[in-house]
Amino acid sequence: GNRTINKLKDALNKKDEQAISIIVEKELSSDINSIVSILNKLVQLQINVSDELFNTNREIYRSSEKKIYISIGVALIFALALAFLILGDNLSLIKNLEASNRKIAASEDKCRAFIKYAGDAILILNEDLRITEVNDSACKLLGYSAEELPQMKISDVMPSEEHESLSEKVNIIKKSKGSLHERRGRRKDGSEVDTEVNVRELQGQGYVS
User: Fold this and answer.
1) According to the model, what pLDDT value does residue 58 have?
2) pLDDT in tens, 84-127
3) Contact at 8 Å (CB) between 147 and 193?
4) N or C terminus: which one in the chain shows less Cβ crowding within 10 Å?
5) 74-99 burial by CB neighbour count: b if 16+ within 10 A, else e?
């Protein structure tokens, strides 16, 4: 209390070490012990709170870590499943394309074989009326080789007097998508041959004659 404090002040002023020791040991020791005990309890409480916070944070960290690993795992599984699905679809598409290409190639081969070995003379022209493909019968009819005809226009294998009616015939073909008419052809040796010509328009590609 105040009395003890006053006695301690008086002893300090007098520098009486013996009196100071007696006051501390007999009158202040219990108070000091109480304060130290309280301080110890506060320190222990702080330690306990720190431990509890540490343990809580560690549990939160472990829980978050597990969730992160699970999320990464789920994302990887989903990505792999999606990749396999896309890969499967692409492989199926590639196989279908390859099968379609084989069918198209086979059809083209059959068509070319039909044209090549057909008994009738067949000429395929582009939109400029230039010869692009011929068969053996056309070469035999006109006396040109299979290399010569694709360098020529249809007018080159027609007598000059037939040239004037060519544009009219082309207009008829475009309008009706085809035409069946008689025409004279001119062979390589200059001789002429009467023919019946059946022409059909190939949409945007030219004509087959």
Assistant:
1) 83
2) 888 888 888 888 888 888 888 777 777 777 777 778 899 898 88
3) no
4) N
5) eeeeeeeeeeeeeeeeeeeeeeeeee
